[in-house]
Design a protein that fits this description.
8 strands, elongated, alpha+beta, Jelly Rolls, three-stranded antiparallel β-sheet
């Protein structure tokens, strides 16, 4: 349920909220938060869905409504919210990024870690390292065909770490 706040343009929304100390049900709810680290073992370049693992953790937390942050602790992998119904979507995304950022060491100065390292950093810069997802009734408010993916940009198998944080009531 949404409530409208009548504010003058120079007022903040806080000015229109009930004063501190008012006793109504909304002001009695306490903010809570929880943290978790999730590890993924990738099999090399590709998109790896982690929606179910995140949902399983989220379902056991004391926060029913709030905001979930998912953060990947790497610069050569990233996060996407993408369609999870048709695998061709994922293959097309991989093909697009491979074409957009070729693995050709003659194009880059940073080559000490292999032909795929600098392209992995560029792909990571073009995508996201964190996602913010609304939570209601302890469930992520993803669309019907949306899933959360780790986008691995390196060819070699690797261990990837995600930091999860939920805050809310």
């Amino acid at each position: 349920m949404y409530s409208q706040l009548a504010c003058q343009p120079w007022q903040t929304q806080e000015a229109a909220l009930p004063r501190q100390g008012t006793r109504n049900r909304e002001t009695k709810r306490r903010m809570k938060q929880a943290h978790h680290n999730l590890t993924l073992h990738s099999g090399g370049q590709g998109l790896y869905e982690v929606t179910n693992e995140i949902a399983a953790w989220l379902g056991g937390q004391p926060v029913r409504e709030g905001l979930l942050t998912v953060f990947i602790q790497h610069t050569s992998a990233s996060l996407l919210i993408q369609e999870n119904a048709d695998p061709d979507v994922l293959r097309d995304i991989e093909t697009f990024f491979a074409t957009l950022v070729p693995e050709d060491s003659s194009l880059y100065r940073h080559t000490a870690e292999g032909d795929d390292d600098m392209p992995a950093h560029i792909k990571g810069a073009l995508t996201q390292t964190h996602l913010s997802i609304p939570v209601r009734d302890a469930r992520m408010q993803l669309g019907q065909w949306q899933g959360i993916y780790v986008f691995e940009h390196r060819r070699a198998r690797d261990e990837r770490h995600l930091a999860l944080h939920i805050i809310g009531t």
